[in-house]
Amino acid sequence: xxxxxxxxxxxxxxxxxxxxxxxxxxxAWLFARAKxxxxxxxxxxxxxxxxxxxxxxxxxxxxxxxxxxxxxxxxAWAFPRLAAGLAGASAATWPHLxxxxxxxxxxxxxxPVTLRxxxxxxxxxxxxxxxxxxxxxxxxxxxxxxxLFAVLRYVSVASIGAAVAIPVAAWTLAxxxxxxxxxxxxxxTALGLLVVVRHRSNMVRLLAxxxxxxxxxxxxxxxxxxxxxxx
Length: 231
Hints:
The chain is mainly alpha-helical. It is 68% helix and 0% strand.
């Protein structure tokens, strides 16, 4: 391996590691902890935005959603630009660095070193990463999510539907363009499969008719969290 190639590989690995560590920041745990709640023992027990929304409050849930999305967006969008600027090189030197950093951030959210590798389902972080590398795909995912949630009121169904729709659209668009590049649709397929697999318990409850719909509140005013419906 030439010296320049070795430097490129080492630089790429360093940024991907940084993206994983960024994804490992447990905003749900931190925000809930600030209110005296261990989110892993509250509500559905999941470390994510909807469980914070239900168990701690809407403002903290929204803050968690934004934080989780940003830790996907910033590695995917900013890291390639930072890498190019620091190296005095063109971003073309690392053509898929943003995509790989986005995936690493999702992996950090899903298996965070900060919480002994027990994290969330990666929907918000995946959306943030998509906004950084494929904003049209992110827009499609949001549209599908909103439509399914508006009709069915299941966060889990909306998340699974978006996770399936995005790679299908990516393959369709990639195949229609000259110079077919399979990297983006392959990565989006892997992310979609990860989201679907992480919702397997939700699918079991959906089939059993026990999955919780959004909007049900307890007597104390908080939304009831009997089902694992977190994105």
